[in-house]
Write a structure and sequence with these properties.
Distance between the termini: 49 Å
Number of helices: 12
Helix content: 25-40%
Number of strands: 19
Strand order of the largest sheet: 2-3-4-5-1-6-13-10-9-8
Shape: flat
Radius of gyration: 27 Å
């Protein structure tokens, strides 16, 4: 039984205008127990949690966006964030809990702000011990492809370095990856999470949820180290694309939206874990090229040489098999937003000469034509230097300003939100 779970679920949504404001007083009127924080967050003025009958928090709400922020966020007065506390994520249907809550209070779902998918295990499917694998990786026996920026944490002991966490990517990455010893983390009194130990027991990772022990085949009792591979996806994740199936074929299919429906069962969570691990937790054996060829190429200084031998390209090295994928599984990949590009020198030269040429013109028709061409080239320059997401935000902002100047009585943020909705549905621009 695969021990896969959602470890973090947070969504961005809008409050229903008829129920607005859905503040702490609103939920008290609905019969909820509310615990408010005296201060908000960097983006919101209000933050509070709703408590269940056992006085445990089951929903965190951040609302009432701050005004006067120097950065354009696209928030409207109805903007808010909903987040499930960690223990709720380990219930049978955390996505269903989030959906039911939004439906009950007429929240309008906009996008997943953050979702973490984790998989707990004692051994890799290949039989490798995670700690041994990590030590060999740090010793450069294996090489990781994709997301190679690494951070490791541990304890520098007298005899050896006892590491506990390997992280790839960074906090701002669309997807970040972690491999760490979960047993050690929750073994500290302040970090204990009984619901995770219970989840391990139900999945067969331990035989006792209180002691976290397991019985060997010979009858002896031991405490297994349970490790975790965890992927954290941020709001930049928008679509999933089919990349290939088990046979290596790459079928052409349209993009699949990054919505809650992709994670609403444990089986779907396992499917998404396979997709993420196939791309972000993939390792290769470190291999060298033929020694005779390496000597020749080394003499010509064509390739990088390590320890007197020339390394193969990563993509040509053998895969280090860690997990066994479902037979016939069709792998998806989170769509990456392309980085902004730079204009060529030719474009800059042409734009500069057009401006100079315009100064020599006397015909008003030719001047207008030249101005139109210059405006178009400047707009193209902005698009190249700005990601697609930000470009659409800029277009929406320009359209909202135009409508406001034209006499629209609504607030600029209300107009902006409507325009962005139309853009998302490809009904504008």
């Amino acid at each position: 039984m695969r021990c896969v779970n959602i470890d973090w679920l947070e969504v961005y949504c809008l409050e229903d205008r008829e129920r607005f404001p859905c503040n702490a007083d609103y939920f008290r009127q609905q019969g909820y127990i509310v615990r408010e924080r005296e201060y908000g967050t960097r983006q919101y003025n209000e933050m509070f949690v709703l408590l269940d009958d056992n006085m445990e928090p089951f929903m965190e709400i951040r609302r009432n966006p701050k005004s006067g922020d120097s950065s354009f966020s696209g928030f409207v007065p109805e903007s808010c964030h909903l987040r499930l506390p960690n223990w709720v994520c380990y219930q049978n249907d955390p996505v269903g809990i989030m959906r039911d809550f939004m439906m009950k209070h007429d929240y309008i779902f906009k996008r997943i702000f953050r979702i973490d998918i984790c998989y707990d295990f004692e051994y890799f499917d290949s039989g490798d011990l995670p700690e041994r694998f990590a030590r060999r990786y740090l010793a450069r026996v294996y090489r990781k492809i994709n997301q190679c920026k690494i951070t490791n944490h541990g304890n520098d002991g007298w005899n050896d370095f006892e590491w506990e966490t390997l992280s790839w990517g960074n906090p701002t990455s669309m997807v970040s990856t972690k491999l760490y010893n979960k047993t050690k983390e929750i073994g500290r009194p302040k970090n204990d999470k009984p619901y995770i130990r219970s989840h391990w027991f139900m999945c067969g990772l331990v035989d006792s949820p209180t002691e976290c022990t397991k019985r060997r085949r010979d009858g002896s009792i031991y405490k297994p180290d349970i490790w975790r591979v965890e992927f954290s996806m941020k709001s930049a994740a928008d679509n999933w694309l089919v990349i290939e199936d088990q046979s290596g074929k790459k079928p052409k299919k349209k993009a699949i939206r990054h919505t809650l429906s992709l994670f609403d069962t444990r089986d779907k969570c396992w499917q998404r874990f396979q997709d993420l691990a196939y791309h972000y937790f993939r390792f290769k054996y470190r291999e060298y090229k033929d020694e005779e060829k390496a000597i020749i190429r080394q003499a010509l200084n064509h390739d990088k040489v390590i320890d007197g031998k020339e390394l193969k390209r990563k993509d040509r090295c053998r895969d280090k098999i860690l997990f066994k994928w479902d037979e016939g599984h069709e792998f998806l990949k989170v769509q990456t937003v392309p980085p902004p590009s730079k204009p060529s020198n030719d474009d800059e030269i042409l734009l500069r000469r057009l401006r100079m040429f315009k100064l020599t013109l006397t015909d008003p028709n030719l001047c207008r034509a030249c101005e139109a061409l210059i405006e178009f080239m400047e707009a193209q320059k902005v698009r190249r230097l700005t990601s697609h997401h930000l470009t659409r935000e800029t277009q929406a902002l320009q359209a909202a300003i135009a409508l406001k100047i034209g006499g629209d009585s609504r607030s600029a943020l209300e107009i902006l939100e409507e325009i962005k909705e139309l853009m998302a549905n490809e009904n504008i621009f």
